[in-house]
Specification:
Strand content: 35-45%
Radius of gyration: 15 Å
Shape: globular
Order of helices and strands: EHEEEEHEEEHH
Structural class: alpha+beta
Largest sheet: 8 strands, antiparallel
Helix content: 10-25%
Number of helices: 4
Length: about 160
């Protein structure tokens, strides 16, 4: 089980980080949500996965992935209810911690940084870097499946 904290981040900073570090394009197609579960197909380069995420009431989640051939992934993508594409860059924060910076390009544009933790105490003790913007962990409109199915939230200026 893992816990993820998400923050908005300034687009200009993300452009600089991507220019320096590069990244990879990830496309996800989401199926209609079910109680406590989200399922989607993920295409990352030539790798393709069918993913099932189960959420617990305490905010933690577990994820099961199954490799699928790219042709099957493309066929599944065609029948998804919503799609999202983003460019992901991994960035070391120090102390063994890694941030994932996602620059969404579809269905609209915005930038998000995510940090994963093993538990609630570790997440609460995390010293948030000054370059992180407002935290949106509790705002479900920033969940990847919500972005794909409902569109991009309007964060305003960051």
């Amino acid at each position: 089980m893992s816990l993820v904290r998400r923050f908005l981040v300034a687009p200009a900073l993300v452009r600089l980080i991507r220019k320096e570090r590069g990244g990879s394009r990830i496309t996800e197609g989401y199926f209609a949500p079910q109680a406590g579960r989200v399922s989607y197909v993920r295409v990352d380069g030539q790798a393709c996965h069918l993913v099932l995420v189960t959420s617990a009431p305490d905010g933690t989640s577990s994820e099961e992935r199954t490799d699928v051939p790219r042709a099957h992934g493309d066929a599944l993508m065609d029948v998804c209810s919503g799609k999202a594409a983003y460019d992901r860059t991994a960035l070391a924060l120090g102390g063994g911690r890694e941030a994932l910076i996602d620059r969404y390009v579809a269905p609209g544009e915005f930038d998000l940084v995510s940090v994963s933790f093993d538990g609630a105490d570790e997440a609460q003790g995390f010293p948030v870097p000054a370059w992180f913007g407002p935290e949106v962990t509790g705002d479900s409109s920033y969940d990847r499946h919500a972005v794909a199915l409902q569109g991009v939230p309007h964060p305003g200026e960051i």
